[in-house]
Design brief:
With about 325 residues, the chain is of the alpha/beta class. It has eleven helices and 13 strands. The chain has helices at about 10-20, 40-45, 65-75, 90-95, 95-115, 150-170, 190-200, 220-235, 270-280, 305-310, 320-335; strands spanning about 1-5, 25-30, 55-60, 80, 120-125, 175-180, 180-185, 205-210, 215, 220, 255-260, 265-270, 285-290. The structure holds nicotinamide-adenine-dinucleotide.
Length: about 325
């Protein structure tokens, strides 16, 4: 099968390409290689595939409508896994324009490409941040997601709405995946697991938001990628019996689905830090501080729907996940 993976140089994108290639699929990966974080890390992720003839990398901005139209027309993808986005909650407060370009215009270009070229299935990244002001846990896809607390989250919710309109109007099967804090080897330098590892190793002080009273449904990268691929294999069908009044917001009379994809067991921030400390054998210097703008107190995924549809069952626990992250981090930066 021929896949387009957007955001192929990213954390989840590169791991997804790797798994698709291992399963003998043909993959075209696109990414604009922007400098939101270290471009060398993005290039190093891509370098893993440089000898794989089934992989082609194209440097492209998904917000560039003309190039995207040409790419879709020329390549004729069977399926699309759309992961390119301006990520990060806090940066969306400083630079909302980057989110409008990549997450709104870019997402529209992907939808248009799928629509005009009869792509079988579009799987795209949403986020647990859509749950915003929700306090009830675990978060279920039947919960209201109308109250985001960051512009990033608002763009991800918008992605789901945009996808629904295309599923409805053009019968395009779409699946949105709400990712919950992904961590592991090749992880993102703007996220806490990487930042903590780096700072503790360098003897720098780590900032601990809300004085450590926070919970995250940390999910290991391999579990996430397994879920992404499983979801791409289950093409949603229109449910003719679905009604707005009685149906779940995560389904539709159109071929449209939204799932949570997390570990399903939230971890206290201090426990996460302790596990990094014990793996490194170093006690962190800690600066406890208030909750930061755009942050949520707790994330906790109910993944029952994804399990029923695909058999998705996360299996990597915190200890092994943190060990793998740290082994990779040491090995990667020793060689730089
Ligand atoms: N990692 C997580 O915990 C997490 C949680 C929730 C949602 N997500 C979502 O999952 C997706 C992948 O996240 P990630 O952690 O791999 O992030 P990432 O930043 O590592 O990967 C995104 C990639 O997209 C590329 N990109 C950004 N804008 C682009 C554009 N306009 N054109 C082409 N390429 C562009 C970036 O260069 C980057 O390589 C994103 O949509 C993100 O919002 C991730």
């Amino acid at each position: 099968m021929k896949y387009l993976v957007t955001g192929a140089a990213g954390f989840i994108g590169a791991a997804t390409c790797q798994k698709l290639l291992a399963a003998n699929h043909t993959v075209v990966g696109i990414d604009n290689l922007n400098d939101y974080y270290d471009v060398n890390l993005k290039l190093a992720r891509l370098a893993q595939f440089e000898n794989d003839f089934e992989f082609t990398f194209v440097k492209m901005d998904i917000a560039d409508r003309t190039s995207m139209t040409e790419l879709f027309k020329h390549e004729k993808f069977d399926r699309v896994i759309h992961l390119a986005a301006q990520a990060g909650v806090r940066y969306s407060i400083e630079n909302p324009d980057a989110y409008a370009d990549s997450n709104l215009v870019g997402h529209l270009n992907v939808l248009e490409g799928c629509r005009h070229n009869k792509v079988q299935h579009l799987v795209y990244a949403s986020s647990s941040s859509v749950y915003g002001l929700n306090e009830k846990t675990p978060f279920e896809t039947t919960d209201s997601v109308d109250h985001p607390v960051s512009f990033y989250a608002a763009t991800k919710k918008a992605n789901e709405l945009m996808a629904h309109s295309y599923s409805h109007l053009y019968n395009l099967p779409t699946t949105g995946l709400r990712f919950f804090t992904v961590y592991g080897p090749w992880g993102r330098p703007d996220m806490a697991p990487y930042i903590f590892t780096k700072k503790i190793l360098n003897g720098d002080t780590i900032d601990i938001n809300n004085n450590g009273d926070m919970w995250r449904d940390f999910t290991y990268i391999d579990d996430i990628v397994e879920g992404v691929i499983r979801a791409s294999d289950v093409v949603p069908k229109a449910d003719v019996n679905w009604k707005v009044e009685s149906g779940s917001p995560s389904s539709s009379s159109a071929p449209y689905k939204v799932y949570n994809i997390g570990h399903g067991s939230p971890i206290n921030l201090m426990d996460f830090i302790t596990s990094i400390e014990s793996e490194l054998g170093i006690e962190a210097k800690k600066n406890f501080r208030e909750m930061q703008a755009g942050d949520v107190y707790k994330t906790f995924a109910d993944t029952q729907d994804l399990y029923i549809a695909t058999g998705y069952k996360p299996c990597v626990g915190l200890e092994l996940g943190v060990k793998n992250l740290i082994d990779w981090y040491k090995d990667f930066y020793e060689k730089q």
